[in-house]
Amino acid sequence: MARLLLVDTAYAVFSTAMLALLFTGAGPKRSLEEFRRKCELEIAPQTQLGNADTIAYRDSLTIKYYSSVLWCNVSWTLGVLLSNKWHMLGLANALVAVVSLARKALIQFIFGRLTLHEVHHSYDRILNFVLFKVVSVRATLDADWEDLAIWTVVYCCFGALYLVGGLARDHLECLRLSPAQSGARWGFVGLLVVLMTSAVGMGVLCWVFLRPLFVILCIEALTIMFDVGQTLVRYTAYTWGTDSTETWEARSDAVVVCEFITDMCILVLTLLHYTHILFINGLTLNIVSALVFFNIRSITSKLYRKTRKLVAFRRAVASMKCRFPDASKEEIIKFNDRCSICREMLVTAKKLPCEHLFHRSCLRSWLVRHLSCPTCRATLSGADVGPWASTNPAMDMPEHGSDLVFAAANSG
């Protein structure tokens, strides 16, 4: 695998060098300075009109009126790269080589071999992200090629961060289901820190160079920060070993609350984003407005469902204390078995009417989705379980904020 990675690295370097060679040897009709002067002369009258408050809000989202230098540089670069088919092939080849190298490096040094579940989730995220951003750009801009190129580069950067962050979250789920590991995986922690730092850096770059787009793009950065921050908190709780069951269960409760807060922040930010897009696009009868309305309805529904799940969780915590007694030390010694849910030794436990013992946090998570004993499958009555138990398991499937914003097609 390491040898293949070296080959991919060499090919990526070669492809990038060939692209640079094509770029420098393109022989454009005008030098960059000449093109920039001509471009700025064309933009200047429109900028003066913009100062007279005659530019609509939607038109003000173009970079042309904020940084004519950046606009001219992008226009000149596009003219060189897209001037003939060899330049376009060189650009496509370099992009494929660099993306392939990054993917294999992450698999080699951070994630290891991906499971089928992780691969399928990654493909779903890519498809949903691309489709959503196409709708977003179409609703936001009557774009020139220069604007489209800038938005594409920025969204590719945010998309890469979002994809790797989602893969890290899936990988954490696999780690939780695998046998206990000795200590933290610092490469995984380092990746999460790099993702959060990159999201902050992208936000700063958008503020400095893409000020008109900052209101839209800062939501992308904040969403990634909340999502990766949630994964980092959960991983810290997972790897921070302790011999005290009470401490672990209290930490589990804190992680649930942290997940709720971050997911709610992501959903609220996304709802604001959709509302902003609807304001930019206007209330018109077209497919873009219909999709935006549908997604606003979906996010509102998910906010309600998330709130209901937190209320159910709090009721579960309170109900566990009075409906199922704590097992005494003598009962735990007599039981002489592990918790059948997590397969860990019992130090403290809750006792069901069928006399089986389980960790409090394990039993709570189980009873939110099932109305039976995990060991003997004895049915628990409504009086035993309480009003917080699930009556619709599909409504209580594990959900994460950054995936919820792209799950509109699956909501009722």
Structure, described:
- The protein is an all-alpha fold and 412 residues long.
- It folds into two domains: 128 residues, no CATH class; 169 residues.
- Helix content is 70%, strand content 1%.
- It is built from 14 helices and two strands; from the N terminus they run H-H-H-H-H-H-H-H-H-H-H-E-E-H-H-H.
- The chain has a two-stranded antiparallel ribbon.
- Strand 1 and strand 2 form a beta hairpin.
- Helix 5 packs across helix 10 and helix 8 packs antiparallel against helix 9.
- The longest helix is centred in the middle third of the chain and has 37 residues.
- The chain is elongated and about 90 Å long.
- The two termini are 45 Å apart.
- The C terminus is likely disordered.
Quick summary:
With 412 residues, this protein is mainly alpha-helical. It has 14 helices and two strands; from the N terminus they run αααααααααααββααα.
What proportion strand? under 5%
Count of separate structural domains: 2
Helix content: over 70%
Supply Rg.
Answer: 27 Å
Largest sheet: 2 strands, antiparallel
Strand order of the largest sheet: 1-2
N to C succession of SSEs: HHHHHHHHHHHEEHHH
Note the overall shape. Answer: elongated
Uncertain ranges? 49-54, 387-412
Q: Could you tell me the number of beta strands?
A: 2
* Estimated structural class: mainly alpha
Number of helical segments? 14
